[in-house]
Design goal:
four-stranded mixed beta sheet, SMP-30/gluconolactonase/LRE family protein, 9% helix, Thrombin, subunit H, single chain, 124 residues, four-stranded antiparallel beta sheet, 35% strand, mainly beta, hydrolase, 1 helix
């Protein structure tokens, strides 16, 4: 169900929203937010606020939003690997950050290593 908080610019979009699904605004204050990644084990969602150079975290259990990482090297792409760890791409540092070499290799394959990118990969 779309509330008045949402502006629908193309009426075709309304066909995509199921009547029994509730769309909820979790946070305001981002200049440009993208890259949501949900962690089911911790019941939280992280995403990037690129121009503000931070990552935010929404806690499903109490609805609170807090800073997850700041500065975040303008991270813009986040995903969760098979072991439940964060994998993120950054703009400012020019690298992919993955928790292990295995995760980094999967990340490269998923993104398309054939593109000829020379970005370095690090892990923690």
């Amino acid at each position: 169900m779309l509330t008045s908080d949402f502006e629908v610019r193309d009426p075709r979009f309304r066909r995509l929203v199921m009547g029994n699904v509730h769309v909820e605004k979790l946070f305001t204050g981002c200049r440009w937010a993208e890259g949501p990644a949900y962690f089911p084990a911790g019941r939280y969602l992280v995403w990037s606020d690129i121009p503000n150079n931070r990552m935010l975290r929404w806690d499903e259990t109490d609805g609170s939003v807090s800073v997850f990482r700041e500065p975040a090297n303008n991270s813009n792409g986040n995903t969760v690997d098979r072991e439940g760890r964060l994998v993120r791409a950054t703009i400012a540092a020019g690298w992919w950050r993955a928790p292990s070499m295995t995760a980094a290799a999967r990340c490269w394959r998923a993104i398309g290593r054939a593109s000829g990118s020379t970005r370095r990969t690090t892990w923690w």
